[in-house]
Amino acid sequence: MSTEALECRYFVTYSGVQLPLKLTTPLQDADLQNRNTFFRGYFDADNKLIRCQKLVYAAIELEHNYSYDAEGKLLCAEITDADGEIHILHFDSAGKLHG
Question: 22's torsion region: left (phi>0), alpha (psi -120 to 50) or beta?
Fold first, then answer.
């Protein structure tokens, strides 16, 4: 998925354990010069998190890509871990993990 039409914002960390991740403690572009680790979030026009990347020393260590239904409920999370392994999670209309 192209990130060109998405708004990119930076964060220190995230909270919670449910998906999509909830990125917290926003950073300004100038703050990035002094950080080795941070999260980069790409948001759509409805402010839904579409892609989340954890950067460590400028390398992507973790990436989540999310897709939603027409009502904005999470349908799928594609997670790429530090080893490059991809895990795909599907959710039902109630937000429960299935399959």
Answer: beta
